[in-house]
Amino acid sequence: MQGPLAPLTVTGAQGSWFFDDDGNRHLDLGGQLAYMNIGHGHPRVVEAIRRQAAELPVIGPNFANRPATRLAEMLAEVTPGQLNRIFFTNGGAEANEYAIRMARQATGRQKVVTRYQSYHGSTLGAISATGENRRFYAEPTAPGFVKTLDPYRYRCAFCGDRDRCTLACADAVEQTVYGEGPENVAAILVEPITGLSGLVPPPEGYLRRLRELCDRHGILLIFDEVITGFCRTGAWFAAELWDVTPDLMTVAKGLTSGYVPLGATIVSERVAAHFDDHYLGAGLTYAAHPLACAAGCATLEVYIEEELAERAARTGARLLERLHELAARHPCVGDVRGVGLLACLELVRDRQTCEPMSPQRTEAALSPEMAEVRRAILACRAWPLIRWNLIILAPPLNISDAEIDEGLHALEAGLEAGDRALR
Fold first, then answer.
1. Is there a single domain that holds both residue 101 and residue 249?
2. Is 5 part of a structural domain of the chain?
């Protein structure tokens, strides 16, 4: 329902804050949609955009341009393994579209295995790969996509024991592949850490099992790192945390911190070699846009010079510790999870039954109790990402300790409201 929406009018932003037209400032705990990695208004990126706009603001994708060439070189230096061939897109959905196309062309197969608790974008291929409820509004979707169940330690459909993981979730992926016939499967596409449909890290060994499964059957492994990429998890890419390198990786969001829309499909040498003598049926009007690529170059420079991966790891560890302290004081918190500066509180009606405070996998209005939580947090002028029964935190990676403390104060106000509403 669009009718009740009354969005805040934002007139400016700086660092971890944005400002409304009444002059109030608001703490950006969600990094907008988990992309404001370097904070608002970073002078290095603003100046790079200004300079590029004066020199060459746009040129067609049939020409090369210096910012795109330089950004491709910079990406090849920071991506893991042999992921060093870059195809620029306008955003994450298109990056996933082209990863799917490339995998199908390179393997000659059609099936793509994805997970139910996933979101890969809103274009036809990306929404067909998506498992969560937003795909319902696009159905019937494109053929060839097969869903499998996810790892989700707090609500494990397999082990039934949060403390003893058997990796049956990885067995389920393998059984799905066998059910479709491995010779028909082009790719397995996953978010290494489930994004805004749960923010769930995988159990140890899960991604390695997917890598082994793909290697065994000539299947390509695709990591959607649109949210987890670019230092968000305390490493350049989440793939590095589990020492697993995919065959293709998709990125966007943190590539420019959202200053200008830009995405990329990053391909291994082995996959790219197929297209040395096969036509890639691809084309985007704004591919390798010089203004966007100039912003990307400047953003990567900020990550390196300000050591934001290391900073995200340190600040994230402190944040997670403080979130556990909050959970101990508030019975409405069922689970706390996070990696780097990507964290989540999952709210419940009852810790024993784990019943969600607000139903998951629906875009219906929040439950009255969850609405009270949201209202109390926003009253403190802090803006995490709130969806279903989840409070998701993805603040700028250069957020200060004092700002973290202010955000935690707002979260506590929300949890107090949640406890009261449940009583």
1. yes
2. no
Asked if the model's pLDDT at residue 3 lies above 70, the reply is no
Sequence-ordered list of residues with C-beta below 8 angstroms from that of 9, at least 6 positions apart, any chain: 20, 21
> Does 103 share its domain with 226?
yes
CATH number of residue 243's parent domain: 3.40.640.10
The model's pTM is 0.96
If asked whether residues 286 and 389 sit together in one domain, one would say: no
Residue 405: pLDDT over 60 = yes
Q: What is the mean pLDDT of residues 290-301?
A: 98
For β-strands 343-350 and 333-338, DSSP reports them as antiparallel
Q: What gap in Å lies between CA 209 and CA 340, rounded to an integer?
A: 23
φ and ψ of 17, to 5 deg: -125, 150
Let me know whether 358 and 370 are in one domain.
yes
Residue 323: give the domain boundaries: 10-34+308-422
CB contact at 8 A, 89 and 284: yes
Are 240 and 317 part of one and the same domain?
A: no
Averaged pLDDT of the chain? 95
Spatial distance between the Cα atoms of 420 and 404, rounded to a whole number of angstroms:
24
The domain boundary, picked from 285, 305, 325, lies at: 305
Instruction: Examine the domain organization and report whether 19 and 53 are in the same domain.
Output: no
Residue 321's CATH number: 3.90.1150.10
pLDDT, one tens digit per residue, over 325-334 is 999 999 999 9
Distance between CA atoms of residues 371 and 375, nearest Å: 6
> Could you report the per-residue pLDDT of 94-139, keeping only the tens digit for each?
999 999 999 999 999 999 999 999 999 999 999 999 999 999 999 9
Task: Please answer whether residues 125 and 114 qualify as being in contact, where contact means their C-beta atoms are separated by less than 8 angstroms.
Answer: no
Domain count, the chain: 2
- Pull the structure tokens for residue 175: 């059984």
Measuring CA to CA, which residue among 31, 100, 8, 95 is closest to residue 312? 31
Q: Answer yes or no: are the C-beta atoms of 409 and 29 closer than 8 Å.
A: no
Residue with tokens 């059984």: 175
Hey, what are 345's tokens?
């509180």
| 369 within domain boundaries | yes
pLDDT band at 159 (very low <50, low <70, confident <90, very high): confident
> Angle at CA 96, nearest 5°, toward 94 and 98?
70
Q: Which of 348, 344, 366 is nearest to 357 (CA)?
A: 348
The answer to whether position 130 is within a domain reads yes
Residue 118 is classified by DSSP as: -
Is residue 59, in this structure, part of any structural domain at all? yes
Provide the strand spans (E) within 73-138: 83-89, 111-115
